[in-house]
Specification:
It is a single chain. With 54 residues, this protein is an alpha+beta fold. It is 52% helix and 22% strand. It has one domain. A hairpin with a 2-residue loop joins strand 1 and strand 2. The radius of gyration is 16 Å and the shape is elongated.
Length: 54
């Protein structure tokens, strides 16, 4: 796959920027990955709390 030839692997977290006739694909840095993990955990907690309140 062309993404693998450019150094990306399956499961890599990426940032996609789309503009007119332009696609930028960047790996997420450690800070972005930590933020993503935090948001995912927070969403999981919110869903759990919502179930408990029903």
């Amino acid at each position: 796959m062309w993404l693998e030839r450019l150094g990306f692997k399956a499961g890599d977290m990426l940032r996609l920027t789309v503009r007119e006739k332009l696609l930028i694909i960047e790996p997420l840095g450690d800070d972005s990955l930590a933020a993503h993990d935090y948001k995912a955990a927070l969403q999981e907690v919110k869903q759990h709390l919502k179930k408990l309140s029903q």
